[in-house]
Amino acid sequence: MKITLQHADELGPLVRATRKHQGMRQDDTAEGIGVSENFLAKVERGGGTVQWEKLFQVLTELGLRVEIDIPDAALALLQAQEKKRGVRP
Fold first, then answer.
1. Which CATH number do you get for residue 49?
2. 0.70 cut: is pTM over it?
3. Domain range for 74
4. d(CA 6, CA 24)
5. Which of 45, 53, 59, 88 is least crowded, fewest Cβ atoms below 10 Å from its Cβ?
């Protein structure tokens, strides 16, 4: 399923849901990718750093968009997590 992202903080929860759907632990995933667990945790929290926000500003201004093709099961997990936290889609 394709999802259009409009803000940097929307990417993190998708990364986390996809990792969990694949049954991977955060530390193992980070090691396999070659990044620190701390970095992956920051990505998954969706914290918009200045650089990410600037990137999305540039993309938006240029009429570009970032789409993530996420497995339906991972999307269902994400939606269930958001519902549990009271986040509206």
1. 1.10.260.40
2. no
3. 2-85
4. 27
5. 88
